[in-house]
What does this fold into?
Amino acid sequence: MDAAQAPAGRGLYNSASRTTNDRSPWRNTRDRGRRIPGDDVVTSTPALAPGAAAAGLRATLDCDDIHALPARLGTLAPFLPQIAWSDSSAGGERWLALGEIDSLVAPAGSGFVAAYELLARARERVRLLARLAPEPGLVRYFGGVAFDPRHGANAGWPGGQAARFVLPRVLLRQAGARAEVTVLGTPEAEAHDIIGRLREAARSPAPAPARIRVREAIAAGSRERWTHAVQEVLRAIDSGAVRKVVLARDILLDAEREIDPWALHRLVHAGEPHGLRFCLRFDAGSAFMGASPERLVAQHGAAISCDCLAGTIARGLSPGDEARNAAALLASEKDGREHRIVLEEILAAIAPHVRSVQSPEAPRILALPGVLHLWSPIRAQLRQGVGLSEIVAGLHPTPAVGGSPRLAAMDLIHALEGRSRGWYAGLVGWIGADAADFAVAIRSGIVRGNRMTAFGGAGIVRGSDPGAEWDETARKAASFIHLFSERA
It folds into this structure.
């Protein structure tokens, strides 16, 4: 089931205020006054407070790009947090979540149980609240889970806790030149004012953002530290402690001026028409964004889909180069072994929870800007009663971004990388009443002031070479960086 027990005595539900007798978050539901197991503090939810538009206020908006709106609206309430999501496989549909009427947070370092508990709570709450919206699909929590919830937040993005999910006050959905706006949990007069401000912001077309001029800041000794880390992993593989470990490094980029995360996100979105694009801004000072080619899991009713993405080579400069490199990747013993490790563990993780599964007999080639990957799409049907949190707990993190065995690899990663990954290689997405979608947060980076920290990883298996793996991290990071930058 989705419900899970939180550790005794730990309140993981975080908000600015506690409930009072007449402002219960369950006020307008048949579950009035109900507490979800494990809640020590249940927050007041303005969506259900007296005076709120219980069914939500809905309008349309003429807008060329809803992801240009946050830069015009600013970062004051009611427009913060700001979260963007788009999925190229969903017909180019874009989503923008602004503000929050509910927030679920597992503090940094609180661990896997606490983080996955939020998935179950968000699913339960969205099912209770879904009938308050004009249509159920418009009630969804947006957020994510850190790569390793046992450790602290990444210093560059303190808003990224062990896990965090928000129910937005304002939700925009766009397909084409018109967007639908839904304002939840807000008194009607205030909701009309919010829609008016959105229309004002959308009135003039959004100019295309200029590419960002950056200079890479290479930390002293970084190449030597990388070589040492790879050698340590190879020794651990030889000893039998691990089969595979994915090491990652930071690529630090300094811009000539402060970086607007929404301009950068729009550049990324325009430059990478495929995959899952996201931008999360929980506070005014920093943002986390990316364009991930890898889906951890999508769920629609009983159907789930996952990506196995492991094994990489440069794409090449011409169609002939690409064809030769694709053939070399398919024939590579090292890349094939890496791919099989990931595929076997994904299938083993979902096996207890599904009644049928489909995966290709051999991997396919997935072509992305700058790189080619070995890719195996997986489709399955869930057993009755299996919840989203069980699937995510079994999959995250996959060996494509962590390693095998999972915990041994993650412990090595934390010891050798020398900092918390935060949400890099974690999961980012949304949870609805009977659907959810999560990207593996790779091809990603943190924006803070005039600095961008991009991430690049490489899977270390027997036969890996430190120099070749360094080059692979550079290619992967470059496939993201080139979407928005020009080198100084």
